[in-house]
Amino acid sequence: MTIRPPVEPQLARRHRAATLALNGGLAHDPVTNAIAPNISMSVNNAFTPGDGSFSADGVPDLTALPFLYAGWTNPTVRQLELRIAALEGADDALATASGTAAATAVFFTFLKAGDHLIVSDVCYAGVHELACKLLPDYGIEVSTVNLSRLDDVVAAIRPNTRLIHAETPCNPLLRLTDLAALAELSKTHGILLAVDSTFATPVATCPLAHGADLVIHSLTKFINGHGDALGGCVAGRKDLVERIRSRAGVYFGAALSAQNAWLIMRGIDTLFPRMQAMSASAGKIAAFLQAHPAVSSVVYPGLPSHPQHDLAQRQMRVPGAMIIFQVRQLDAVAHRMAHESEVFDYAFSIGHQRSLVVLLKTQDLLRSTFALDPAQLADYRRYAGEGVLRLSIGLEDTQDLIDDLDHALRT
Ligand SMILES: Cc1ncc(COP(=O)(O)O)c(C=O)c1O
Q1: Ligand 1, CB cutoff 6 Å, lining residues
Q2: Which letter, b or e, does each residue of 291-327 get, where b requires 16 or more Cβ atoms within 10 Å of its Cβ?
Q3: Strands in 54-180 per DSSP E
Q4: For domain 17-268, which architecture applies?
């Protein structure tokens, strides 16, 4: 199935990122001149005599209508796709029902039985489990590699390696991958590189500019930013996105709803100021935690103590809004955060306007998700010890967040 794209806005100049976040890919409504995106809820669009949607002999032409059925795309979803493409400096993008659906779409488009996938040994648990527990059932070989160690990547490459799936900063460690170096390596071996950039957002890093082939997002997180819509996307070169759309976009049934696309676009309008404010707040909170006697370790890409601080400075324009930290009395502090916090909500997920905290115990994640060899485990513990509290910093006053943490740390 081929889907003809709608007319895309042509800009005379390439604008800077914050302007692109507002206007990139967005066209005024051609009928009403509405500036804000419309929401088009229709599941289907009609073939209308005289509008070119019938062939000369009167047969409906499936390739003539830009929008046919919302399972493939829809005017509001398409508007979001164009905005994501503009933000990431991509030719095109495909929106999906969730971030996990976007990763699934990439895996099942570029991998078949007999192929080999290299996936980060630590990344978002759902995608890690999809790669390691489901893909082998389909005859796909999978290796889990610490992608911050290029020698380990080289050692893992096989003649049938087709795809590397990276995540930077990775969930939950906030460990980084050197995208330019990994992209060079992937290109040398003719391997596609897909990067989940959910934690970074285009405000911090645009993976395609560092040489990646595809960038994946959970739009559920910072890009929507309001905790009220699931969504995902993958962006990149036109031919790659077209392949994903024609396979997974059509046959997986994981289309994004128009309503969620509209909510996510509403979120994108404030992505830059939100990320900048949350990142500035996270920097102060990370410094507070690092100075606190009850805290034994803090990982935040903006702290000079981050093991890859140099790379963070090269690759991230802002250090982001995610922090992990260790305390000696992990359970007690987690309990106080869950029961006595006035500002933080104790909850999974990240990237919302309200701050979130959750306890992630190393043993629990090793049991449920990550099968690490001794060197990988040592690296995991270097970042996360026996467990961490993961903070997703929102837009509240920084001092209120610090007061909440200070209270919980006085055990
Ligand atoms: C880095 C990362 N990628 C992907 C996902 C999956 O996103 P979704 O919940 O939209 O499927 C998550 C979810 O937490 C995530 O943290």
Answers
A1: 98-100, 124, 126-127, 167, 171, 196, 198-199, 218, 220, 230, 232
A2: ebebbebbbbbbbeebbbbebbeebbbbbbbbbbbbb
A3: 92-96, 116-120, 141-145, 161-167
A4: 3-Layer(aba) Sandwich (3.40)
Q: Please determine, for residue 17, whether its predicted confidence score (pLDDT) is greater than 60.
A: yes
The pair of three-digit structure tokens given for residue 96, joined into one six-digit string = 């999906």
**What span, in angstroms and rounded, lies between the C-alpha atoms of 105 and 102?**
5
Query: Which H or E run includes 323?
Result: strand 322-327
Whose tokens are 């309001």? That residue is 226
User: Does residue 374 surpass a pLDDT of 80?
Assistant: yes
Distance 13 CA to ligand 1 centre (A): 34
Which of 336, 340, 354 is CA-nearest to residue 391?
A: 354
Residue 37 to residues 13, 259, 353: CA-CA distances in angstroms?
A: 22, 11, 22
> What architecture is the 271-409 domain classified under in CATH?
Alpha-Beta Complex (3.90)
Q: What band does 91 get if pLDDT is binned at 50, 70 and 90?
A: very high
> Given a cut of 80, is residue 5 above it in pLDDT?
no
Atom of ligand 1 nearest to the CA of 350: 14
Reply yes or no on whether the pLDDT at 369 is more than 60: yes
* R_g of the chain, CA atoms, integer Å: 22
For the CA of 123, the closest atom of ligand 1 is: 1
Straight-line distance from the first to the last Cα atom of the chain, in angstroms, rounded to the nearest whole number: 61
Give residue-wise pLDDT tens across range 198-224: 999 999 999 999 999 999 999 999 999
**Looking at ligand 1, which residue's alpha carbon is closest to its atom 2?**
124
- Predicted pLDDT of residue 143: 98
Task: Tell me which residue has its CA closest to atom 14 in ligand 1.
Answer: 349
Name the residue ranges covered by the structural domains of the chain.
Answer: 17-268, 271-409
Give the Cα separation of 257 and 95 in Å (integer).
9
6 confidence band (pLDDT: 50, 70, 90): very low
